[in-house]
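Ticket #473: bound-state structure for adenosine-5'-diphosphate.
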Amino acid sequence: MKLWKKLSMLAVLAILAATGIFGGTVLYQTANYNISQTISNYQGQVTSTAYVLEQEIRNNAPQGFGDETNKSFLQYTLRKHGGTDYMLFRNGKLAGNLTNYDVAGQGTMPEWTMKQAKYVIQRTDGHHILIMGKQFASSGEGIYDLVLVRDISQIYDDIQDQVWMLLLVYAGVTALAINMIFWVTKRLLRPLNELQWTATLISEGDFRRRVQVRTNDEVGKVAEVFNQMADRVERQVEELEEVSERRKQLLGSLTHELKTPMTSIIGYSDTLLHVKISKEQQKRALEYINAECKRLERLSGKMMSLVGMYDNEMIHFEEYPVQELLNRVEALERYHVAEHKMQLVMTCAVGTVPMDVDLMESLLVNLIDNAIKASGEGDTIDVLAVNNRITVRDWGKGIPPEEIPKITEAFYMVDKSRSRKVGGIGLGLALCKKIAELHYGHLEIESRLDAGTSISMVFDRMKNMDGSQEEMG
Ligand code: ADP
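RESOLUTION: The complex was predicted; output attached.
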């Protein structure tokens, strides 16, 4: 059963129970009050009539006459002071009956007493008959029972009318309550249906779907949180799709990059095996094979670093002085730079930074190697650590502006044949970009053709790297 139906039924049941108990109790109390009021009125009436009769009999009863005379007197007195609702008994025998009721047909009567008037209500032929009696004595003449017999069916009929009226109102209220509660509950829970519908669509892949938050109640809050969750899911799905797409591209590029050296190696080794060539040619073929194998080795090394960096547990952060880092990099690059007759100028104006030293070293070595490849003999390469960045700057050939956004993609080389000649494989900047991201930073590339390039590693979470600034997460 749907939630709105369950809630509505519960509310209707609660209202019915409450109104039923309330109405029933009020009706019961009213009926009891009416009956007891009527009885109390009649008790007053019977008591005063008994008193008047007692006085009349005591003062005016004929003395020394026969039974018939006495009976006539009593009947006369009863008619005069009582009326048509009364019977009078003298010493247990009927002395007068002005009612339409037969005493014998009234069943057993209670024992009347001199004290308060007693009563009994009998049901005969659908009528409620009140029989009320009281005893009185009159100057040794015997004991008298004054009995009132009265049809009080009207009171019961009124009560029955009230019961019907209550049931009618009850039915009306019930019908109205059911309609109103069903309508209100359905309306209140409508956002939940929308939520369910949206959740179904999202689970089927429509990640852009959102619920319209209209209310400020609990349901509205759930809808709001649901939308936040959907935002997050959408973002994560997009990220996953992006990663998967990048992996696909990486794999495609890798296959392509592997194919070129493999083809050369197979070609040269086939020539060595099957073609008669001079010693000089054999040597050159072996040199080609050797160079291509070295290229493959470099390729696999860089690929392993790049893949390894997706495993964040391998990264080890420590507070490390940037000056120390630059010293290590200079020691590594000293001979390489000298080999190309260039100068490496290191300037450091910052303190310590939380970093993975090996990865930062690898980043700077890659940037300096690229700068060396782009520069000419006698050029200078600057490495400058200032504020929240470390910059590698050269005055070499520069990068065409339209190529700048692409050079951090894996296997991208501006001039493939030239890059290959100088040992490039197009993975260096992809590695640098990943290292920068792992340090909560990014790469900033500025370049002008034939004027030079400067590539900076920017630590986004720090303002200055003087050791006293904001910490990196
Ligand atoms: P590679 O292994 O080819 O150096 P990278 O990813 O390091 O691969 O660089 C990609 C391309 O970006 C290079 O082929 C080169 O054309 C260009 N590049 C990188 N750094 C510089 C630089 N300092 N000056 C000029 N071009 C550069």
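RESOLUTION NOTES: The chain has ten helices and twelve strands.
TICKET STATUS: resolved
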